[in-house]
Design brief:
Elements: H1 3-17, H2 20-35, H3 42-45, E1 48-54, H4 74-83, E2 89-94, H5 117-128, E3 132-137, H6 142-147, E4 152-154, E5 160-165, H7 171-182, E6 189-193, H8 208-218, H9 231-258, E7 263-266, E8 292-295, H10 298-301, H11 305-316, E9 322-327, H12 341-353, E10 357-364, H13 372-387, E11 395-396, E12 400-404, H14 406-411, H15 418-433, E13 438-442, H16 448-452, E14 456-459, H17 467-478, E15 482-485, H18 505-508, E16 510-515, E17 522-524, H19 542-564, E18 573-574, E19 580-584, E20 588-596, E21 615-628, E22 631-636, H20 640-645, H21 651-664, E23 671-673, E24 678-685, E25 690-697, E26 724-729, E27 736-739, E28 745-749, E29 752-757, E30 761-767
Parallel strand pairs: 1-2, 1-10, 2-3, 3-6, 6-7, 8-9, 9-10, 12-13, 12-14, 14-15, 15-22
Antiparallel strand pairs: 4-5, 11-24, 16-19, 17-18, 17-20, 20-21, 21-22, 23-26, 24-25, 25-30, 26-29, 27-30, 28-29
Helix pairs in contact: 1-2, 4-5, 7-9, 12-13, 15-21, 19-21
The structure holds zinc ion.
Length: 768
């Protein structure tokens, strides 16, 4: 139990018998120890907190009605958040127009009068030993840009971009002065939002300051605009990433120079759907500050983003805590609606199960009023999380490492990164629906150790793969690793130009004959003869070992058609996405790849380009299996990952992906059967010999047509707890299993556990 949990009880007891002065002494001691000398920083010991800001802060261009933020009161916010079981508070203090403290630099909203919201909050937070963080907006400083128009970022034509600031301008000094004003309030640190260089065109920054710096660093002028054919654009991207990196490091160093205890975290944008234009890469920018913070949120990113982002942040900052922010509103931060409790529970427990710590964001009413129903729900939500604290933070058990290539993002994704992301997101979706533990591996920080964390590493259409990466993949496979390659991996050079071959040919065991033009591709697996079972014995010698491996490989190949196919034999099914016609050299071919009737049309793009057309003829093998050292490379000539994330997702394409994982890794620590809308997260506590299986149900309600943008229907809210069956099998043996919820029906039979669960979140603790 943390100090946070013990002190209020201690104080309640103390107040009964201590004279007034004595109580003050106790308070002072507790306060000092909570603020300064706790052995662990706040972000390592707390699981759930709140962020509170006034709605309307980013709108209206600073022209607010007199009652704007009138009741936005730091003392009330702290009290209500403490009552709602928050363990820390991120208070909105500075935005583009205003600040909510007494500042020499920025105005306050008129409605505040003489009040200093940060002072109110800091005084009250001290009484509760609540770590208080200051939300400080960095980007879109409308007030400063009106006074200093030459601080604006400039597009390639030299035109000012009105809403964006240049991170090489003197604006950086204003930010430092602001942070220096806020620190003496006794705060725990800063949440800095955001360091983006634009979420789309117009792109910056081509101002004179940036041009001069580029010339000095790269010995040549900046490229004159976005140009993916130009070598110099590569330098420009590096300059762009370095700009954000330097700015973040400068602010972190500055805050630490003033107060080494104060924490700094940045709202991170190195993950999909964001790309180069923001100016961040997955690993470098996640590493700035004390920990990474990102957002989930159905409203912008879909329901799968909760688990995707949590696993991504973990991989981008190995060994560090990571924070994910979620929101109260049904559609958005500022929409003044409140999600049902179960809708919030699904998102909160998905994130906690994946090891994040979670911040719930409340945007108050326009005048700062705090909605009592919202705070009652926060109290239940955060209280449940704290009660389950011991169930989180164990080591994840993972089968599939999903490879992400930032180089492919930039040089193949270019201005449309979503096409590349679809392969990555499809691999993730398949893992979630099929209950395969997953994580991410980044090209930016690639090492043999990073690969070896996973029994299977998937390259989802990683089209740019360097020789260095190939070498690491080879060593990983030769040492016993399993590689799952899809799409057109390795078939483009570092600037995204097509190669006549694949850099992965030696691993795949096949040459590239050609890439298929269309995305509507099909696969078919014929009936196969199943070889007789029986243990094969080989001499304990290098020759015997080689023979054993050859026999196992032959057995794998013979079993593959039956093991992989997701439907009837000889049935062609759609696997929409990029595909390659391979010619095997050392690999064994399994199944057929078919093109579509589109290939025979005079104008293939003129015929319902968005809709896949029917299967036509066999053009090559569907799958290649290549034995290499102690490991195996399984290559899909198509893209079951892309297909799974596409609008033409058929269940069989997803099953095909899962079957390939199971063929490569036949004995996972636990095999989970559960509905596709239930995500499973398995963690291990080796000291207690306990595997925890978190089951989190996404139980959205049906919807009608939207008022605009039909047919893009938004997901409904989760109102009720579902009832579902699940089963767990432990090939390595199982001593006991118990459910956390009393309502769960659990039957253990040997190594198998059958469950009927009636909740959004359940945890089965399994002793081995
Ligand atoms: Zn600039």
């Amino acid at each position: 139990m943390s100090l946070q949990d013990t002190t209020p009880a201690l104080l309640r007891k103390a107040s009964r018998w201590l004279p007034w002065m004595g109580l003050i002494a106790v308070l002072a001691t507790v306060s000092r120890s909570a603020a300064g000398t706790h052995p662990q920083p706040w972000f390592e010991r707390h699981l759930v907190g709140m962020e509170v800001g006034p709605t309307g802060a980013q709108f209206g261009g600073g022209k607010h009605a007199p009652d704007y933020a009138r009741n936005f009161n730091g003392r009330d916010i702290v009290r209500r958040c403490v009552e709602a079981n928050a363990e820390y508070l991120v208070l909105w203090v500075r935005d583009g127009e205003f600040t909510f403290h007494n500042s020499k630099l920025l105005p306050k909203p008129a409605g505040l009068g003489d009040r200093d919201v940060l002072r109110e909050a800091a005084d009250e937070a001290r009484r509760h030993q609540l770590p208080l963080l200051v939300y400080c907006q960095l980007q879109y400083p409308a007030h400063e840009l009106r006074q200093h128009p030459d601080w604006k970022a400039r597009d390639a034509a030299g035109k000012p971009i009105d809403h964006l600031v240049c991170f090489h301008s003197p604006y950086t000094n204003v930010v430092k002065q602001l942070l220096a004003e806020m620190l003496p309030y006794g705060i725990a640190g800063f949440h800095l939002d955001m360091v983006d260089q634009g979420f789309g065109p117009p792109h910056g920054c081509w101002c004179d300051r940036c041009q001069a710096l580029f010339q000095a660093e790269h010995g040549r002028p900046m490229p004159t605009g976005v140009n993916w054919e130009d070598e110099n654009w590569d330098r420009m991207l590096r300059f762009r990433y370095a700009t954000s990196d330097r700015f973040e490091k400068m602010l972190t160093d500055y805050v630490r120079s003033l107060d080494p205890q104060a924490t700094v975290d940045f709202n991170y944008h190195g993950n999909p759907p964001f790309s180069w234009e923001i100016g961040q890469t997955p690993v470098v920018h996640a590493g700035n500050g004390d920990f990474v913070t990102g957002e989930a949120g159905l409203w912008a990113f879909g329901a799968l983003t909760a688990s995707f982002n949590a696993a991504w942040y973990r991989a981008a900052t190995p060994g560090k805590p990571f924070q994910v922010a979620i929101q109260r509103g049904v559609r958005m931060y500022h929409d003044q609606t409140t999600r049902p409790l179960n809708d919030m529970r699904w998102e909160m427990f998905t994130l906690l199960a994946h090891g994040a710590f979670v911040t719930m964001i409340d945007k108050t009413a326009y005048d700062g009023w705090l909605d009592p129903v919202a705070y009652t729900r926060f109290g239940e939500l955060l209280g449940e999380a704290r009660a389950k604290r011991a169930q989180f933070g164990q080591t994840p058990v993972r089968e599939v490492g999903i490879y992400f290539s930032a180089r492919t993002r930039d040089w193949i994704g270019r201005d449309k990164p979503a096409t590349y992301y679809q392969s990555v997101q499809g691999a993730h979706k398949a893992c979630v629906y099929e209950h395969l533990g997953f994580g991410f591996v980044f090209d930016e920080a690639l090492s043999l150790e990073a690969l070896q964390q996973f029994p299977v590493v998937c390259l989802p259409n990683a089209t740019i793969v360097s020789e260095r990466e190939v070498d690491l993949f080879r060593r990983y496979v030769e040492g016993g690793g399993k590689l799952l390659i899809t799409g057109q991996s390795g078939q483009f050079d570092r600037m995204g130009r097509p190669l006549g071959t694949s850099t992965l040919e030696g691993l795949i065991g096949a040459g590239v004959k050609r890439r298929l033009e269309g995305a509507d591709n099909w696969m078919r697996f014929s009936t196969s003869s199943i070889p007789g079972s029986g243990t094969m014995l080989f001499a304990d010698s290098p020759e015997g070992e080689a023979a054993r491996r050859r026999a196992l490989h032959a057995q794998n190949v013979a079993f593959a058609p039956a093991a992989l196919r997701p439907g009837p034999a000889d049935w062609p099914f759609l696997v929409r996405g990029p595909a390659t016609i391979y010619e095997p050299t050392t690999a064994a071919s399994v199944g057929d790849l078919l093109d579509s009737h589109r290939a025979a049309l005079a104008n293939p793009e003129g015929y319902n380009a968005d809709w896949p057309l029917s299967a036509r003829q066999v053009v090559g093998p569907a799958v290649l299996i290549n034995a290499l050292g102690k490991g195996t490379v399984l290559t899909f000539a198509g893209s079951p990952d892309f297909a799974t994330a596409s609008e033409h997702h058929i269940v069989e394409a997803r099953k095909l992906f899962a079957h390939a994982v199971r063929l490569l890794h036949p004995n996972p620590r636990v095999r989970i059967s559960a509905p596709a809308n239930v995500e499973a997260v398995v963690t291990d506590d080796p000291a207690a010999r306990t595997l925890r299986v978190h089951l989190i149900a996404y139980n959205a309600t049906p919807q009608t047509t939207p008022a605009k943008d039909r047919p893009y229907v938004l997901p409904g809210l989760i109102e009720e707890t579902p009832m579902f069956r699940a089963s767990l099998e432990f090939p390595g043996g199982l001593k006991s299993a118990k459910a956390l919820n009393p309502s769960t029906q659990l039957k253990k039979r040997g190594q198998r556990v059958d469950l009927v669960v009636e909740d959004i979140h359940e945890i089965i603790q399994c002793r081995y």
